[in-house]
DNA sequence: ATCGCCTATCGTGAATGGACGATAAAGGAA
DNA sequence: TTCCTTTATCGTCCATTCACGATAGGCGAT
């Protein structure tokens, strides 16, 4: 790359689009819901404001370990939270993060 | 899977969350912007309402072929459109698709 | 027709994602 | 304690992504 030096780059600003931290966090958040199973999980948790646990597994045509993996990804993204309740774990939506995602997309 | 038959599944609806076509298209659209480079490209195209061409390459710290790949992904998602203009190609945002994405996220 | 520029595509390699079964860890109940 | 249930993690396999250089095709200019 870097060969077209005879003309101005984008707009009037030099270049400086490299490694945009905003784009990175945006992409991460978007990636968290960039899978049908994760979209369904998020919607499920939104649908019932209250938290639920491994019934999520019963709602998806996936193995328990696979669902657990998706839940981990969603948890790491911050979109959902898990809280241990005895031997079970209740998950619920993190509305702050969800609103943040909504704002990021809306402000596109 | 399918072992917990002694208790009701999620909510009162049987199960039927399998292969939700809505979730699939949502996930596809989200995946299209689930990469920092693609977020930057989309923002760039939104910033300048008009279309631009391979200057995008100069705005990203990526090889031309890599950028072309990302553009292809975005084009296939419908979020952007490319129109040939002589030896160059001008890309622009597909506002309909973008609005669709916004609506999908807002209605979460 | 030939040259040079712009872009898409091909081929490759490294890394990651997604799915599964098996297993481990934690807690409640008998 | 000993089970049983619930969930997370491990290891593995296959598919896909992402990045690159090289190459091919299109088009305008010379």
Automatic annotation (TrEMBL), chains A, B:
CDD domains: HTH_ARSR (cd00090)
Signal peptide annotation: none
Keywords: DNA-binding, Transcription, Transcription regulation
Pfam families named in the record: HTH_5
Gene3D superfamilies per record: Winged helix-like DNA-binding domain superfamily/Winged helix DNA-binding domain (1.10.10.10)
Stretches assigned to the HTH arsR-type domain: 18-108
Presence of keyword DNA-binding: yes
Top-rank taxon: Bacteria
SMART domains linked to this entry: HTH_ARSR (SM00418)
GO molecular function: DNA binding; DNA-binding transcription factor activity
Family matches, as PANTHER family: REGULATORY PROTEIN ARSR, TRANSCRIPTIONAL REGULATOR, ARSR FAMILY
This protein's name: Putative HTH-type transcriptional regulator YgaV
The species this protein was found in: Allorhodopirellula solitaria
Lineage of producing organism: Bacteria, Pseudomonadati, Planctomycetota, Planctomycetia, Pirellulales
């Amino acid at each position: 790359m870097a060969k077209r030096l005879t003309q101005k780059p984008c707009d009037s600003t030099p270049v400086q689009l490299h490694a945009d931290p905003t784009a990175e966090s945006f992409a991460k958040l978007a990636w968290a819901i960039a899978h049908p199973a994760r979209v369904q999980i998020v919607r499920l948790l939104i649908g019932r404001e209250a938290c639920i646990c491994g019934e999520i597994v019963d709602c998806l045509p996936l193995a328990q370990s696979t669902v657990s993996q998706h839940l981990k990804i969603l948890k790491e993204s911050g979109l959902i939270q898990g809280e241990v309740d005895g031997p079970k774990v209740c998950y619920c939506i993190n509305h702050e993060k969800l609103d943040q995602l909504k704002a990021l997309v809306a402000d596109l």
